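Complex record, four chains
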Amino acid sequence: MMGNDFLFQTLSSWSTSSIEEVASTGPGIRFFQLSVYKDRHVVERLVRRVEWAGFKAITLTVDAQRLGRRENDIKNRFTLPPNLTLKNFEGLDLGKMDKVESSGLASYFAGQIDRTLSLKDMKWLQSITSLPILVKGVLTVEDTRIAIQNGAAGIIVSNHGARQLDFVPATIMVLEEVVKAAQGRVPVFLDGGVRRGTDVFKALALGASGVFIGRPVVFSLAAEGEAGVRKVLQMLREEFELTMALSGCRSLSEITRDHIIARWDAPRL
Amino acid sequence: MMGNDFLFQTLSSWSTSSIEEVASTGPGIRFFQLSVYKDRHVVERLVRRVEWAGFKAITLTVDAQRLGRRENDIKNRFTLPPNLTLKNFEGLDLGKMDKVESSGLASYFAGQIDRTLSLKDMKWLQSITSLPILVKGVLTVEDTRIAIQNGAAGIIVSNHGARQLDFVPATIMVLEEVVKAAQGRVPVFLDGGVRRGTDVFKALALGASGVFIGRPVVFSLAAEGEAGVRKVLQMLREEFELTMALSGCRSLSEITRDHIIARWDAPRL
Amino acid sequence: MMGNDFLFQTLSSWSTSSIEEVASTGPGIRFFQLSVYKDRHVVERLVRRVEWAGFKAITLTVDAQRLGRRENDIKNRFTLPPNLTLKNFEGLDLGKMDKVESSGLASYFAGQIDRTLSLKDMKWLQSITSLPILVKGVLTVEDTRIAIQNGAAGIIVSNHGARQLDFVPATIMVLEEVVKAAQGRVPVFLDGGVRRGTDVFKALALGASGVFIGRPVVFSLAAEGEAGVRKVLQMLREEFELTMALSGCRSLSEITRDHIIARWDAPRL
Amino acid sequence: MMGNDFLFQTLSSWSTSSIEEVASTGPGIRFFQLSVYKDRHVVERLVRRVEWAGFKAITLTVDAQRLGRRENDIKNRFTLPPNLTLKNFEGLDLGKMDKVESSGLASYFAGQIDRTLSLKDMKWLQSITSLPILVKGVLTVEDTRIAIQNGAAGIIVSNHGARQLDFVPATIMVLEEVVKAAQGRVPVFLDGGVRRGTDVFKALALGASGVFIGRPVVFSLAAEGEAGVRKVLQMLREEFELTMALSGCRSLSEITRDHIIARWDAPRL
């Protein structure tokens, strides 16, 4: 994510704008983050729409076959406000979250999402689409190997914003082990905790091919709308470019592991 | 401790309900946590009652032959409130704690408990009962080996809620060394600090066969009575099961050491 | 920096007193900290004035070819107060910083300083002066080697007061690696974080030939003028000498690596 | 320091009761902590009085040939209150500290104490007395070896209450390295930071032959006089004995290195 040429988007299955609405906003590289519904017809229909809309890849979420226990959502009885719906599911009558005693999201999730998700679903997905499939939610060597052996086109190191399981490691702490396990066979991306250009630099130095950001976009959108998002992207771009310059890197390929010090590095003596 | 099938109780010698009252509440697997009184007739009588009441094992407390210096108890002049007695000792006129200038518990303890407790008492205990005897209060390789060599049917890694000796390690920090020392010959349990399902998962990943909880039960009992205890057990069960699911474990046997990262683990690079 | 004989000064290009004014205050060893302007005539003229004024060395700043993102300066719209100018550039009409919407320093910097600074500029500098050139802003083995191979007369381990790039290491943490890389071929100095005589001692024990201080001088100047600066220098001198005495060092050469313990040292067992 | 049989005292040269007054209070094992005055006649006279008063050893302070920069003393213009004098020096007209602009102690120290203290003074001291001489203020392997090679009868690991030099290690952190360097040739003691019986246990487990305490005695004396000191000694004795019992140690010789875990210990796996 540097110039606009380097910018791409991954759209949630549960976006409140539809696949087609997003695609209609103009050119751009888009991935679709697929949630696997119990009803595979729902999934297949999503995949078709994504293909027709020109998305470039599917990111298959493998760390949310069950929803984490999000105690704030339970306490606040979180649900979508009335004016918002899950637009991609409106025609299927799956677009609304009920208001329930605990978390409306948890309730919707338990009702619709397939908790038996496994490698056979990845095989099935590969059988119904030729789009590249990235595996999102990998934190270990083992899962990296399994994903690649089963045809993953890329790995996204993610802990789902640390909302799924308490005590998961920070993604930046396990990125390097995943990169090593991938052995350069597929690109490895990272999300989680990217707030500054220095974070982007660290991820790239540890071997990431790119990073995804969530909250900086959402918060700036809430604060200042489109202008806010432009501002946050501009800030990240400038900070990253400045970090490169001050680290003596003239191009992305000059960013190496030696440009950073990780907690687990031996002293250089 | 998962489903109710996996739930068992260990009852303190100093419970304010008697062995027989507890047994009469219905079926269940019960252990008895034995305090060794100076008067061995008292101990033998306890053991007989435990056997008759259908308890499945004795846990012999080996970290409290002396009571730790509990400064809050001293400052607060802790003693049992008048409406409570040590029910198991009522007939022996040992059921009450006096109100003294310092800790009533410390005073009672110094008067009744045998501070010379040693391996010969374990031998004696084995000679008077055929119940399996677990050793509770182990924190080291050395004590694990001694306990097993002397016939322990199991090990409970415990620091007595950290109330006995300042600076003892947290049980989760020494669990792995005890498990390795046990070499699979007897089960190793853990108590101390278990508050969430993730804690249960960590203990099992480090090799524990199960965990004991104290304060969550006591606090929920105080707050909401039986319903509170049910709630806390339910919470632990659900969180543990969710942790398994999100860690990709379909059964207890699939929980391995590689599912967690301990502070002392080398970087996986 | 011990007795006055050991005291020397490095003057910023952007001082608010001119090279000549500083030189006229009396004898003393002075270095000049050179900022490389886009217009090399400006640079060459500075170098000539520095030579004529009897300065002993040039320190070439290599960590500020771009100005760090100093958010306080941006927020406060930092610029020089009207009564101060960059005296060395008055005749060149480059002495003033404009008042702008963000940081006046950043604006001036972006306009005047050459962001393409590289080794060829060091070569050029060597071609126009015979003054020794120290390289300031080194934090790694790699840059140390490059600097020495290209004729640096000394190394200054500096992170520019940590104002250039977030997450740079503290200079004291990398000093030893730089000293080892220098292999005794040129002296290594340190700046950053020196506040007490114990800090000077630590730097020397890690192999520094000397240290530079900035804020202690500036703060004491602001608080008590010349007397304040004398006081802070006296304090550092006395504390350093006392540290030597209490560490059993009778001369600078008796200060060794064994007189300190660094975080990365193995236990001495 | 366990029962009274294990209790001994070390008296400061600058005590406000004289050597003879202290000796007259009854039997007891006493050491004398010797400060080396510029005037060696003063020192020799102290040594003679100590011998005559039946003291058992001299502890030679080697970390205070210069007084540390004690900023609180400077700020508070510390001096002895008028009703107190350095009783051991009354006849020599050296018993009073002047009230000065900064620290009265620092002023007295600078005037009287020999900052050139070195091994030749230890040799001289050995030549004038047959009392065993312990070296107090050792923190390293190197100084341990030098002290023993030069006839020290014992080592006291001390950082002078951390009042001499900022950043000295805590004594408990270096005790083990000193004990190993001493190779059992002389006893090693520790002072600094001993506040609880657990601290005594840790020091002994790391190889100390005993510990010295200062502030607990001084504070309890200020709070409750003789009864306070008795109380604090009783507390330490009871806590230490309880720590032994709960660690399974029936005698001092059963306290081993394996009874504690130090920060630098490898995991026991």
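Note: The longest helix of chain C spans residues 215-246.
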